[in-house]
Design goal:
alpha+beta; 7-stranded mixed β-sheet
């Protein structure tokens, strides 16, 4: 049990793929309305989670009761995904997942975030991340301006 007394963080497994896909789709739709319309079905996203996310990244899920309410996926100090079900935002679950990623990292964590995603940017900045570069969107499939944020265990920039 984690400090909030309600949420358990555990490693994800293949049986979690459909739940992780639902969270991924719901979170992006609710928190990033500027994204192009989703072209992939839930089944396609579930397959992506099962075949790529769960096999190539260290992936954790946040569980409340019997329900998965969030997930984080990282590899070698790069946070690829951190998504929560929209109804559990601002309850400390993202912090619990991010803390797990930080503990598992080699002393630093980097990530990409859309410049328009002010909520995520504020979340990461509250957790010690700083901007290390910006991009015009040429490095992401959405073609939207993004930025690289980085956290270092020693606080260096």
């Amino acid at each position: 049990m984690t400090p909030d007394g309600k949420t358990v963080i555990r490693r994800a497994d293949a049986a979690d793929a459909a739940s992780v896909a639902r969270i991924h789709l719901a979170s992006r739709a609710a928190t990033m309305p500027y994204l192009p319309p989703q072209k992939r079905s839930h089944d396609q996203v579930t397959q992506w989670v099962r075949d790529l996310v769960l096999t190539q990244y260290r992936t954790w899920v946040a569980v409340r009761g019997t329900e998965i309410v969030g997930y984080a996926a990282a590899e070698s100090g790069m946070l690829h995904d951190l998504y929560l079900r929209p109804d559990v935002l601002r309850q400390g679950i993202g912090t619990l997942l991010l803390d797990e990623v930080k503990q598992d990292s080699p002393g630093e964590v980097s990530l990409y975030v859309f410049q328009q995603n002010t909520g995520a940017r504020a979340f990461y900045e509250r957790h010690g991340f700083t901007v290390v570069d910006t991009n015009d969107g040429s490095r992401n499939m959405e073609a939207l301006p993004d930025m690289t944020l980085r956290w270092r265990a020693d606080g260096a920039r």
